[in-house]
Amino acid sequence: MTQIPDTPNFSPLIETNEEEKRDSGVPSTVAIAGHPLHPLIVTFPIAFLASAPISDLAYWWTKDMFWAQASWWLILIGLGAAVLAAITGMLDFLRIERVRKRSAGWAHMILNISSMILTIINLLLRSGNISGAILPLGLVLSIVVAALLGLSGWFGAELVFRHKVAVIGYGDPNR
Fold first, then answer.
1. Residue 17: what pLDDT?
2. Average model confidence (pLDDT) for the chain?
3. What's the pLDDT score for residue 26?
4. What topology does CATH give the domain 30-162?
5. 52 backbone φψ class: left, alpha, beta (φ>0; ψ -120 to 50)
6. Which parts of the chain are beta strand (E)?
7. Taking 70 as the threshold, does the pLDDT of residue 11 lie above it?
8. How many other C-beta atoms can be found within 10 angstroms of the C-beta atom of residue 5?
9. pTM (2 d.p.)
10. Is 91 within 8 Å of 30 (Cβ atoms)?
11. 116 CB contacts (<8 Å, ≥6 apart)?
């Protein structure tokens, strides 16, 4: 039998559960043909919302309205995609006890909710004043949201790769 190497345990950031290393994992409760939807859907809000600070910076440097409008659409579409990702993620959070037992699950959820709230604020600030709200607050909010999504993604990866959530497996979802 192959020995599984020890993994770091830096609670509360990284929790290692030796039993989880040996089980096959817990499938997502929101899947098509066994393929989890949440990891697929999250790529869209991440891409759109992580691009918003880039278009905000482009507007700042060029004062070209194209970039202000691009930011508006990136944030709007990113928020819509985030709602879909949040629904699938929350369903797994509520239905898979293993997710709720791990600090990574709570951190992932809290960071994503915070990102969505800040995105809504950013969108509301820009409503009716697409270019006027970019500097400085719109740009700051866009950067903060992108950073929060990066951190949240790290915790989401902890759930998948360390705790084996939303994988094809037959492990106990309550453990």
1. 63
2. 88
3. 83
4. Four Helix Bundle (Hemerythrin (Met), subunit A) (1.20.120)
5. alpha
6. 31-32, 35-36
7. no
8. 6
9. 0.86
10. yes
11. 79, 82, 83, 86
